[in-house]
Design goal:
Elements (H helix, E strand, L loop, with lengths): L8 H14 L32 H8 L17 H18 L7 E6 L2 H20 L6 E6 L5 H9 L2 E5 L10 H13 L4 E7 L11 H10 L3 E8 L6 H4 L12 E7 L11 E6 L27 H39 L4 E2 L6 E5 L5 H6 L3 E2 L7 E5 L6 H19 L1
Parallel strand pairs: 2-3, 2-4, 4-5, 5-6
Antiparallel strand pairs: 1-7, 6-7, 8-9, 9-11, 10-11
Helix pairs in contact: 1-2, 1-3, 2-9, 3-9, 4-5, 6-7, 9-11
The structure holds pyridoxal-5'-phosphate.
Pyridoxal-5'-phosphate binds next to helix 4.
């Protein structure tokens, strides 16, 4: 680990308050031309004594706007202190978590996984248009049927067709046959450019796509393609749980990654991260954003700098080794649940490096699902229910569920 290290509470406080001091101070300076200010002080009390010990809350009150992308060119100088914190977050994720080379990535803290996925697809659509003269109907998105519905949103918003690849109903692996058939079908429909979104842990199953299978088949069938990794769920989990994998920047075929801090990193909502190799974010440059210093390369526009500060504080409080331990605990609990289910002959799916356990619906009653907040794949016609082992999902909380499943299924199975 090069940039990521565990810091003391004091050091974290110092760094964030120094960053805020580098930002504009609306009370003390004459800043007259921006449609921005501190939070309304009639509502959000600015001088509460605890704020001196609360860097995140203080950042919320200062209310920095991180509009634009801070890893490229000039950016709004009013908020340069906290923008540096955001740049550090992007570097830690790109280099220390996703194995990229130093200073080779652009990115920003997006509103969430949906935006980060849309940002990737937007960039590649424009890249194919600009560099290859492609028309929108020659470009398509390719992803597994277990992919998040943000791919359908991207397809709709960006007017590019979407093809779903089938997965094995039991092991959730993408099917080689389905990829080959989809390439043939899409070529017949006039597609020439492929935006592949491979999953680093799917929403419902925690399954992980074989990204090399996609790239091998793309090469074999002479397709022009770019690969984005959707690690919205898995980005802060899988790299610490899996020994070896191909879903990061060590793989030259991977160009960008989404990872959400507001899922496994327990950050406030609004902390999706979008990271891409240098040379690509330019395809999302809105030159008309001329009043923004450095223009804009993001989908979102204005966004709170407090989100970047929250992610930085979480990473630095835990440090890389603390993070690994956190993931190990969740893996142990997941293993415990799987052993219980196996001993009861209950069928489920789990990737061995994941904290999602998805049980076939015939083993779960509606009452149990409701009582324990188990989420179905489809509320109308559930085939599966998932357990997600988060920080609050302890073995003590899992035990009653396991006992109720045992009571329900004992007579069925034995
Ligand atoms: C794999 C995956 N991608 C994308 C998303 C979308 O993330 P968000 O809800 O933050 O927009 C999710 C959300 O669950 C997800 O699991």
């Amino acid at each position: 680990m090069k940039l990521w290290r565990k810091l003391s509470r004091e050091d974290i406080k110092k760094k964030i308050f120094n960053a805020l001091n580098e930002n504009v101070n609306y009370y003390e300076e004459n800043i007259l031309g921006i449609p921005a200010s501190h939070l309304d002080d009639k509502v959000f009390y600015q001088s509460a004594p605890f704020l001196g010990d609360a860097p995140f809350m203080s950042t919320l009150i200062h209310n920095p706007n991180h509009i634009g992308c801070h890893t490229i060119g000039d950016t709004e100088h009013f908020f340069r202190g906290t923008q540096k914190i955001e740049k550090e977050v992007i570097r830690i994720c790109a280099e220390d978590i996703l194995n990229g080379k130093p200073n080779q990535h652009d990115g920003y803290v997006a509103s969430g996984g949906t935006e980060a996925n849309l940002q990737a697809i937007w960039i590649y659509r424009n890249y194919f248009k600009k560099e290859f003269g492609a028309t929108a109907d020659e470009i398509c998105i390719l992803c597994s049927e277990d992919s998040h519905y943000s791919m359908n949103k991207a397809s709709d918003v960006l007017s590019v067709d979407l093809y779903h690849i089938s997965v094995d109903p039991d092991d959730r692996r993408i099917s080689e046959k389905s990829i080959v058939e989809t390439i043939a079908k899409s070529k017949t429909a006039g597609k020439k450019y492929y935006i592949i979104v491979a999953n680093m842990m799917t929403t419902m199953f925690g399954s992980v796509d074989d990204v090399d299978l996609y790239s091998d088949l793309m090469e074999k069938h002479s397709c022009i393609y770019k690969i984005h990794i959707d690690g919205a769920f898995g980005g802060f989990f899988y790299p610490f749980a899996a020994k070896d994998h191909q879903l990061d920047f060590s793989n030259p075929n991977v160009t960008s990654v989404t990872l959400d801090a507001h899922k496994m990193a327990q950050a406030p909502y609004g902390t999706g991260l979008f990271i891409i190799r240098k040379g690509f974010i330019q395809y999302a440059n809105t030159k008309e954003a001329s009043y923004v210093e450095g223009e804009d390369y993001t989908l979102i526009g204005s966004r709170s700098g407090a989100n970047a500060v929250a992610v930085w504080m979480i990473l630095m409080t835990n440090g890389p080794y603390g993070w690994k331990e956190k993931i190990l605990i969740l893996l142990n609990r997941s293993e415990w649940v799987c052993n219980q289910l196996k001993s009861q002959n209950i069928q489920f799916y789990r990737n061995t490096s994941s904290n999602i356990i998805t049980i076939k619906s015939q083993y779960v009653s509606q009452e149990i699902a409701q009582k324990y907040g188990l989420v179905p794949d489809d509320h109308q016609n559930p085939m599966w229910y998932k357990i997600v082992i988060m920080d609050h999902v302890t073995i003590e909380k899992l035990m009653p569920l396991v006992e109720e499943l045992e009571a329900l299924n004992f007579s069925k199975i034995n």
